[in-house]
Specification:
43% of the residues lie in helices and 17% in strands. It has 363 residues and is α/β, with parallel strands linked by helices. The protein has two domains: 12-131 and 316-359, 2-Layer Sandwich (Nucleotidyltransferase, domain 5), CATH 3.30.420.40; 139-312, ATPase, nucleotide binding domain (Nucleotidyltransferase, domain 5), CATH 3.30.420. The strands form two sheets. It has a five-stranded mixed β-sheet, sandwiched between helices. A five-stranded mixed β-sheet has the order 8-7-6-9-10. Mean pLDDT is 94; it is low at 1-8. Bound molecules: 5'-O-[(R)-(carboxyoxy)(hydroxy)phosphoryl]adenosine and zinc ion. Residues 20, 145-147, 172, 175-176, 187-190, 193, 287-289, 291-292, 319-320 line the site of 5'-O-[(R)-(carboxyoxy)(hydroxy)phosphoryl]adenosine (KG4).
Length: 363
């Protein structure tokens, strides 16, 4: 492990992200400047299958990562020797792809004797709001992505307290399935959002799972089933010839139902957070679903009524990217939380497990 330079203002970290269907490389500084942020989407390779195929993803990462890292360095105007560390998503994610990123990052770290930073993908999302914006710990985080839906108190780097989570599907998954049912294509989230702008959310009555229930958990599988039934009833199921207006209405009704659930859960979570931390928020939303404008507007209103504000990264930093991994690397490097080169990639890696790791690390 190399020595780190606490509060060194000129820290520069290369970040690599390959945990799903985006091959990404970025260079970010300690001041939060993004010197390069490249993303190569594999959308076209997975589209025929209606979802991400792990084997195709891993091969594609392997084909492109070296070139992309080279381009990111070139765009940043830096040589590897100028870097202060190499950060990579080491999990959770599709393990074949994670391996590709981790091996690449380890090779660079070894060759250039740079500190290696094994970043939890979810921590990348969780800390993105601090990239380029003044945001102190603690804050309340709603993490909504393709694989996750969680409410967490972010107490510090590596310190996450789980407050609630989904008992079945993730929100992004519900968006993707709704899009599939309605024949709106892949990826689902942006397609549902686009269709919903033309629709009437009142045109279909859909359930609001968990609304009014105690606790802070979520459930989306019942909503997905309700969308399927509604789509069937309206002749929209797997029918590209279905009435476009009815399709837009159902997309809008689905999005509104999700908005109601997230708004209610965040209202309750903000109250709990204020009690526990003697501080009103702020509320931070992160993850791919946080790119949704309707949901951002709903959460903005929730934060305002709780006397606080909503912080949401720009949409391009909500969906998977490497700038968030480089930034998490910067945050960890500042604290001396570097990792050995035999760090093993992990398909599963709950955020709460980071607390134990942070406590065990130096710094
Ligand atoms: O964070 P992310 O890029 O990847 C994961 O770590 O999962 O999130 C991807 C998810 C997908 O389910 C996608 O449909 C959803 O985020 N998403 C959206 C929007 N953009 C992406 N969901 C709703 N509205 C959007 N505009
Ligand atoms: Zn993600």
């Amino acid at each position: 492990m190399s020595e780190t330079k606490p509060s060194e203002p000129s820290l520069t970290v290369l970040g690599i992200e390959t945990s799903c269907d985006e091959t990404a490389a970025a260079v970010v500084t300690g001041e939060g400047r993004i010197l390069a942020n490249l993303i190569l989407s594999q959308l076209d390779e997975h589209r025929p299958y209606g979802g991400v195929v792990p084997e195709i993803a891993a091969r594609s990462h392997l084909d492109h990562i070296d070139r992309l890292v080279g381009e990111a360095m070139e765009q940043a105007g830096l040589a590897f020797a100028d870097l202060d560390g190499v950060a990579v998503t080491a999990g959770p994610g599709l393990i074949g792809g994670v391996f590709v990123g981790v091996m690449t990052a380890k090779a660079i770290a070894l060759a250039w004797e740079l500190p290696f930073l094994a970043v939890n993908h979810l921590e990348g999302h969780a800390l993105t709001a601090r990239l380029g914006a003044a945001l102190d710990f603690p804050y309340l985080l709603l993490l909504v992505s393709g694989g996750h839906c969680q409410l967490l108190a972010v107490e510090g780097v590596g310190r996450y307290r789980h407050l609630g989570g989904t008992i079945d599907d993730a929100v992004g998954e519900a968006f993707d399935k709704t899009a599939k049912l309605l024949g709106l294509g892949y990826p689902g989230g942006p397609a549902v959002e686009r269709a919903a702008t033309e629709g009437d959310p009142e045109a279909f009555g859909l359930p609001r799972p968990m609304l009014g229930r105690p606790g802070l958990d979520f459930s989306f599988s019942g909503l997905k089933t309700a969308v399927r039934h509604a789509a069937q009833g309206a002749g929209l199921l797997d029918n590209p010839e279905g009435d476009p207006q009815r399709r837009a209405d159902l997309a809008a009704a689905f999005q509104a139902a999700v908005g109601d659930v997230l708004a209610e859960r965040c209202t309750k979570a903000l109250a709990l957070f204020a009690e526990r931390y003697a501080k009103a928020g702020p509320l931070v939303v992160a993850g791919g679903v946080a790119a949704n404008r309707h949901l951002r507007a709903r959460l903005d209103a929730v934060a305002a009524s709780a006397g606080t504000r909503l912080l949401a990264p720009p949409p391009a930093l909500c969906t998977d990217n490497a700038a968030m991994i480089a930034w998490a690397g910067v945050e960890r490097l500042r604290l001396g939380l570097t990792d050995p080169l035999d760090f093993a990639a992990r398909p599963r890696w709950p955020l709460e497990d980071l607390a134990a790791r942070a406590a065990a690390s130096p710094g």
